[in-house]
Amino acid sequence: MKPTRQNTMSKKRAAMLEKILDAAEQAFATSGFHGAGISGIAKTCGMSTGHLYHYVNNKEALIEAVVQRELGRHMKRMRELENVTHENVVEGLVLNVARTILHETGLFRTVLNFETLAEGQRNPKIAEILRQHDSEIRTRFCDVLRRLGVPSPETRTELIMTIYAGLPARALRYPEQERGIVMETLMPVLRNILTAPEVSPQG
């Protein structure tokens, strides 16, 4: 089917918006959400500030779009975890979680995610987006563990998410960290979290 003029324009607009978001991510990771200027982002994209506002209404909307895109990446990796089809499902889950942790400790993504967390302390709208996203991720991961018959899925989900959240902070403070070695060391820890029997409360 021959593409229509409207479809072509929509694709061009979507491509330009991605270019703007790429530039905004770089600017926000370097200078912070409030230190980076719209004019500098527009210049990186080879357009005027006025032209950029044809794609985003204001800086707040641009910040929200960057946050939503980054959270979308997290959700994509969550869907990959949900679709594990490895013969040994737990091992497949361990590998996927470990790879996700390894990916998330990249310095650029770490800085951007910490900037997002800081913005959540100042901006109620971003805070609500983060809370909703965290709730959905926890619920979906917990459902995966429940489907596997893992006992205490809520507690184990929280343990894994705590590790997930803490490693980027270490990468930021200790950028020389050998993340591949850390991942290999973490795999038996994750495996133990997922397979250890439930401990009965002491009477």
Task: Explain what you see.
The chain has 203 residues and is mainly alpha-helical. It has 2 domains: 1-56, Orthogonal Bundle (Arc Repressor Mutant, subunit A), CATH 1.10.10.60; 64-195, Tetracycline Repressor, domain 2 (Orthogonal Bundle), CATH 1.10.357. Helices cover 77% and strands 0% of the residues. The chain has 9 helices and no strands. Helix 6 crosses helix 7. The longest helix is centred in the first third of the chain and has 27 residues, at 5-31.
Write the SSE topology:
Layout: H1 5-31, H2 38-44, H3 49-52, H4 59-82, H5 89-104, H6 107-122, H7 124-147, H8 153-173, H9 179-195
Helix pairs in contact: 1-2, 1-4, 1-6, 4-7, 5-9, 6-7, 6-8, 7-8, 8-9
- Our count of helices gives 9
Strand content: under 5%
- Termini separation (Å)? 70 Å
CATH topology name of the largest domain: Tetracycline Repressor, domain 2
Let me know the largest β-sheet.
none
Count of the separate structural domains = 2
Order of SSEs, N→C?
Answer: HHHHHHHHH
Catalogue the unreliable spans: none
**Global structural class:** mainly alpha
The CATH H-level homologous superfamily of the largest domain: Tetracycline Repressor, domain 2
Look at the structure and give the mean pLDDT: 86
CATH architecture of the largest domain: Orthogonal Bundle
Q: Please give the CATH class of the largest domain.
A: Mainly Alpha
Outline, from the CA principal axes? globular
Estimated helix fraction: over 70%
Oligomer: single chain
In total, the number of strands is 0
Integer-rounded radius of gyration: 20 Å
